[in-house]
Sequence to fold (71 residues):
Amino acid sequence: MSALKKQVGGQHYKAMKIQPAQYVHANNIPYLEASVIYYVSRWREKNGIEDLRKSIHTLELLIELETGEKP
Fold:
């Protein structure tokens, strides 16, 4: 069985036409940017507003690491 056909802990990625893992891998997207994609892609099906807050926090981390500025 393809790893893309199974998911541990829910169905929120399996139900998507293109899974975030496929998109991230095909586009060589770095970790923090990929995390934002995962959180925003799943928020309605998994953790709701908490996932949107996680994506904002991850973007704040990325800004700080890239610029040295604290948002």
User: Anything to note?
Assistant: Residues 19 and 70 are 32 Å apart (CA to CA).
